[in-house]
Amino acid sequence: MEAIQAIKGMNDVLPAQAPWWRHVERTARSLLEDFGYxxxxxxxxxxxxxxxxxxxxxxxxxEKEMYTFPDRKDRLLTLRPEATASMVRAxxxxxxxxxxxxxxxxxxxxxxxxxxxxKGRYRQFHQIDAEVFGEDSPRVDAEIxxxxxxxxxxxxxxxxxLRINSLGCPQCRRLYRRDLQEFLxxxxxxxxxxxxxxxxxxxxxxxxxxxxxxxxxxxEAPLLLDSVCPPCAEHFQRVQGHLKELETPCExxxxxxxxxxxxxxxxxxxxxDRLGAQDAVGGGGRYDGLMRDLGGPDLPxxxxxxxxxxxxxxxxxxxxxxxxxxxxxxxxVLGEKAADRGFLLAQQLRKSxxxxxMDYESRSLKSQMRRADKWxxxxxxxxxxNELASGEIQWRDMARKTQEMVKLDxxxxxxxxxxxx
Length: 421
Ligand code: AMP
Hints:
This protein is of the alpha+beta class. Helices cover 39% and strands 20% of the residues.
């Protein structure tokens, strides 16, 4: 029978890779919590409407990439393609605006998009997501980007660039949109079919188009940043001022539009040239009208998401995983009786919170020692017929290469006294 394979673009994380994930997750959680973010866990599936209404009907995500299916009552559901919409929904649904301490939230978890899989692009991928609700000060925008810089620094990642732009507010965008539509209209014959079709619904998206011919056209296009209204221009200036004070270098990229409709004012991306076709490691921005559009209070919002797979690919190119110290105890046994006693000892150690490993099948002492070494045990406790009779075990310190006898019924205390790690 043919063995069943995982779904294309949905990956297992094997034990050898898992420490990278834990390292990234731990670093992210600790930094986010240092900055006052609270964890908010959201469901994997939501009503399709939530994403269609927030991300935008004419975006790549909603048009082509969502995993959408009817449930048993024929309601359309979607596997979340990103977290912001759900975070906003949860904030509204649970009336969190009533709690002045609940302003910053984070979430780590898988997202789903039906894209063509390749290196750094998968159908199930993982994001670190952070959102701030109810604050429109440019200080918040700068603080988020500063936090991103610290995050990358703590991970030891260099060679990534922060790009920022302002997409203005709906008022400045409306005027600009008309200019851009006219510009595209005059060059229709040079645009790809997608851009030609989207010129009515979402002309800004042409800045993101990968088609070479569109790239050429867009190089001459009018820029939104040149026509933002004075309050938006001032907001953007202040963001840049704070970033400078926080010594967080950035490049202004007036062509960066991001792939989701809800962004206004500050948008940003962390980019790299080391991931082949995929250059974005993370990105985010303001979405001041989104909460109102989803039926909640009219509160501003800003957030970002970092892709963990891309982050880990970069980290693996650049740095070694922080060394983990030898840890835990391996119980080696010789003979059936000793195996029974060792089995009890192992459970007792685990109950006391000591990381313990033991094999169920009897093997030679040599092969057990090899396993203990490979596993990285700090101590090996050896139990045979003689030891059983004398009520003692042989205690081997793997790093020091020393051996001594220890009373069987004091093993837990001795381990405690010497420190588990
Ligand atoms: P977005 O929500 O599209 O701005 O994506 C934010 C980040 O998520 C990107 O910068 C990537 O690091 C990551 N990401 C988005 N789509 C994928 C994907 N299909 N596979 C892997 N990572 C992704």
